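Table S5 (text form). Sequence records supplied for joint modeling of the four-component complex.
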Amino acid sequence: MAEDVGRRRMQQQQEEEEDERLKAAAAAVEEGGGKMKRKRGRVELRRIEDRTSRQVRFSKRRSGLFKKAFELSVLCDAEVALVVFSPAGRLYEFVSSDTSVEQIFGRCKDIPDTIIDDLNIAARDSRGYCNIQLDLNEQSVPESVSELNSFAQMALELDVKEMSMAELTRFEEIVREALAAVKARLRRDPQKKGDNWSGQESGKE
Amino acid sequence: MAEDVGRRRMQQQQEEEEDERLKAAAAAVEEGGGKMKRKRGRVELRRIEDRTSRQVRFSKRRSGLFKKAFELSVLCDAEVALVVFSPAGRLYEFVSSDTSVEQIFGRCKDIPDTIIDDLNIAARDSRGYCNIQLDLNEQSVPESVSELNSFAQMALELDVKEMSMAELTRFEEIVREALAAVKARLRRDPQKKGDNWSGQESGKE
DNA sequence: GTCTATGAATAAAA
DNA sequence: TTTTATTCATAGAC
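The corresponding structure-token record, covering 410 residues in total, follows.
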């Protein structure tokens, strides 16, 4: 096809990352002369050490986060409550409805059919195997979920009750990164199975 | 205090919008022949009318929003509390820490916390697969973290041949939700460890 | 669910 | 701040 005139790029392909980086660096050197190292690699999920950088990014990302929250509430007609404390302790908050944050959060105890409830059902129904399912309210039931359940088991076997909030957050991050890596590999290996093994999202809205 | 939601300046120049749109449309016609209207203009900030589309968008944007919230809390060392109710009334939440936010969530204390116990019991009952020890209690634990990271990655790769992308994504979701539930309980039980695994900086802004 | 082109967010610099 | 180059998120099509 004669399309993609000029800028067809494979996104998120790890193997091309180095090359891209090098080209960018080279270009920077060429044009700027002495200023290099201008562009970043991928953002690492780790606390930013430099105080100034951290503050600048906080401002930018906070803005972006609030914008996203606002868009979600409008586009999808969802209720959103967001509270952020800067490292300095300053409070920023957003609530989609005209009620207070406390009221929104307070609804947690009034909503019986939540994700937490779904987890309860899943745990209760599990026999022998840890069939952790988030939406198994309706129809389909796990069939060949054994592999996935193994991971769920391992994750849950961690004595999660002994972990601090920071540890939980760290674990979450680690899992996310690991999965991202595995997914990237899967993407390069066409041997993957593309099947859908789990129940569909419940049709109730 | 209300955040300046919606007051961000668009980097792009408005006057170029039409031109860009037209070029995209023209390109689409050229390349696809019969496939048209494939690309979007910029997102309109109003409620999505189509139910299916709205549901799909909700899932995608919710994921993105929670990821952003998580990243902000880690990168910028901020405290973030996010609660989202889907149009169906389903609850999704994320909290980076219990400090200072605890009072806001004070009314959530009545959430049945049997879920955590159920999960742990289910996991223990199906033990025998692997026993994992987590130790992130040190202050600067590059070794432990790296070790855990390796484990997580290795564990995931072991069954990567058997796992589809869908399964990986599902697992990620499960872990996230489970951790959210655990965090919710942590907030109600401050007697748990509240230590931080990472180094602290003295001069917080 | 996956895939991919494109709009949007944003890190670094000005 | 504003600009720019790049990564990131995601709408639309499967």
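Note: Strands of chain B lie at 79-85, 91-95.
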